[in-house]
Design goal:
Length: 92
């Protein structure tokens, strides 16, 4: 095991890159992504169609993260913590 790496199982829902545009449109985020108005929730890098790494909900709002593996991992942990707070099917 590498130093500083925490290994835990986190469930992630994946979509194909072909479906990202549709998802962003449904979330009403597409135009802002294309215009460079959205930054990664974790590192504040501008999120583009080419570097988008994930979408999750924080505080009732859809947020985006870039494709940096560290940002994706932190967003997955945030998403998992949110599920435990609000309750998920897994917790029942």
């Amino acid at each position: 095991m590498m130093n500083g790496v925490v290994r835990r199982r986190i469930h992630v829902t994946a979509i194909s890159s072909d479906n990202v545009v549709g998802l962003l449109r449904r979330l009403e985020l597409y135009d802002d992504v294309v215009k460079g108005k959205i930054t990664c929730f974790i590192c504040k890098t501008i999120v583009t169609l080419e570097n988008i790494g994930g979408v999750t909900v924080v505080g009732g709002k859809a947020i985006l993260v870039c494709g940096n593996p560290g940002c994706i991992a932190r967003a997955a942990v945030l998403s998992k913590e949110r599920q435990h707070v609000t309750g998920s099917d897994e917790d029942r």
